[in-house]
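name: query_chain
kind: protein
chains: 1
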Amino acid sequence: MGNIAEETRWLDATAQAALIRNKEVTAGELAEAAISRIEQLNTLVNAVNIPWFAHGRELAKHIDATSPNTAFAGVPFLLKDLHTMYEGQHISQGNKALKEANYIATSDTTLVTRLKEQHLVFLGRTSSPEFGSLPVTEPEAWGATRNPWNTNFTPGGSSGGAAAAVASGMVPIAHASDGGGSIRVPASCSGLVGLKVSQGRISVGPTRLETNLGVELAVSRSVRDIAALLDAVHGPGVGDTVIAPPPLRPYVDELTANPGKLRIGFVQSHFNGSAIHPECATAVTNAAQLLESLGHHVEIAFPAAINDSKAGSRFMSLWSTNMATSRQSIATMLGREVTINDVELVNWVMAEYSSKVSALDYALAINDNGVYRRAVQQWWEDGWDILLTPTLAAPPLAIGVSANNPADPMSPLKIAGEWMGFTAQFNTTGQPAISLPLHMSDNGLPVGVQLVGAYGREDILIRLAAQIETAAPWAHLTPSI
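structure:
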């Protein structure tokens, strides 16, 4: 190959792994190509906040010496700067105090161990908003991450660094996590594929609870990358109590499977009937027409139970408590009490709000969410296969719109709530959902659509997403950055 950095820039992870397997390039050459792209592009998008280039080079050298036989051996990869402990490496959780303390993880999380077993070449971490609390990636600790399609706009969050890195062509695939939309939102904003798996599909051990809202996987340029990575890392860990039913066959087998004629409901507005941005309405309408042309039954329909007026307050009870536990966790990591100067204002206020949530309130929120989960999931049990929605209620937001505001500390969350009208519900219900890059706005920004499946049915989502990707491919759509 000539200029490896340019010739491999837009190849997905599956294609890059094949180059190594076929001895067309070495893992070391791919690593150097990715490092070159990161160094060139990161000044523009600020996606990689903690580089591990020396470590990545050592990993690539070992792979070239041993030729391990895994699906992603030698592929350049980035970890999100949130939750994923990697022994011997810095993690900041997007927090300025942990950044300044240069906190070093002393062990691996379960998912990191599984990713290491794939012999990926880890080149660093991608930026996340502090504690992953917002759908934009503008942490005070690291500065704003910018959208490769237009750097005046956000790539989304909380996996915004991961999305900006993949969308700009730094790496073909990157780890991401989703507690309220944090895989799907940046996938939508950045023109990528992002799958939120079923609760209990991938272990979040050993220290986090799989009964909470968050799940882990990745953002990528292709459906096949997502399917192959899911094959590599799914399954319970020691002590997990929520375990999704195992797939009947490898997820990569779903890529070429006929989905049959599916019964698909869709919405062109918020679930309560209020209007969304015209670009998002167009995106979902065009997707519905595409699905109908592929032979599926498509009509306007959605679970009536999703319009629960108390669902938002229950989500906030859990989310604010998550902020309080995140604040406490960094106190443990720092070995001292945390003050208001250590934590961003919106997260400090959220953590303080949790003190108004009694143990009884929290228990009732969990119980009521169980009722809500069953009521919403009943729609799929009643014969529907897929719910089609916009991923977001509007195209990507401008940088700075969601900045901390001392005059109204909760304003970033209010903005998030209006923008994210279609994602957090399915963290509560635990269902799998995928965002696909099927539309571009008039001003050249990606707009995603979301497909939601029944609990445990990632197989149907991957089958359908692969069919859509074949019918309306997006691999040729790349930003000019």
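note: Residues 149 and 479 are 5 Å apart (CA to CA).
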